[in-house]
Amino acid sequence: MTQRLEPQQIINNAAYPIDDTNNDARKVVIDQVRRELAEDGCAVIRNFFSTDGLNALLAEATERKPMTYYSPDKLCNVYLNDGDPIFPKDHPINIFLPRSNGFITSDLFDAETNARRLYYWQPLKQFLCECLGKDELHIYEDPVSNMIVNVSKPGQQFNWHFDTNEFTITMLLQAAASGGIFEYIPELRSCDDECYDEVYTVLKGNRTRVRQLELQAGDLQFFLGRFSLHQVTENTGTTDRLLLIMSFSERPGMVGSMARVKTLYGKTTDVHEKNGIRADGLVD
User: Which of 131, 178, 180 is nearest to 157 (CA)?
Assistant: First the structure.
């Protein structure tokens, strides 16, 4: 049985007193994150978790690894959809690359898990909101994918793609012994321009704008992945790479598209059939 901790105990509260809004150390961290996000859409808080907190979150993920969903379709485009025949075969929307990672879906974490309670902890949401410079954040209401674990076993990878949300909060629970490097290209597209030509050059091997970030277990990452193309390289080590992903949105009621959720997680719900609110008109 995984140790049950209070949210304050999961966080490295001595270094990051995020529940104390009057603490100067909290403000310093928020300012740091905002600077890094403004620079290239990516920011990291190192050693965000306490030792006990990281161990508890890792244990919960490890317990659920046997239930990881691996898509039978091993090729995906960067929009994680089925492509579009109205475009040429060498158009980015019709270029498919290997994807072999899996996901532990949100519905496998009940309300009493440490991960779920941390996700719903108001001081965390408020802290993230201020770091992102948003007026308000809402829990991403997708019952399958709002809080998931990305599993990358040795030999697996998650090739170039864009995210559904403008921003994603990720927490590395276990790093690959080698490989499993996060790579990204800041602001490759915008709300009103898919920038297909730029995407095409990356898919054909142009690495001029590619940046790398090597994360360590316990790090918290902010990433503006809606507009920044990104990937996790092949896990070339001997240990699984486990990444906890918590999703929030500026608007209430947002869920993933039915096609995307089915492709990535292997299941959909009535919510996906009735809903599909998007923040923009991008392909996905």
Answer: 180
The answer to whether 29 and 16 have CB atoms below 8 angstroms apart is yes
Contact (CB, 8 A) for 56 and 3: yes
Mean pLDDT to the nearest integer, 184-192: 94
- With pLDDT > 90 as the criterion, what percentage of the chain qualifies? 81
For the chain, how many residues are written? Answer: 284
- pTM of this structure: 0.93
Question: Which of 13-22, 92-101, 169-178, 269-278 is predicted with the least confidence, judged by mean pLDDT?
Answer: 269-278
CB atoms within 10 A of CB 196: 14
Is residue 257 within 8 A of residue 164, CB to CB? The reply is yes
Structural domains present in the chain: 7-274 (2.60.120.620)
- The count of C-alpha atoms lying within 13 angstroms of the C-alpha of 112, restricted to the half-sphere facing its C-beta, is 4
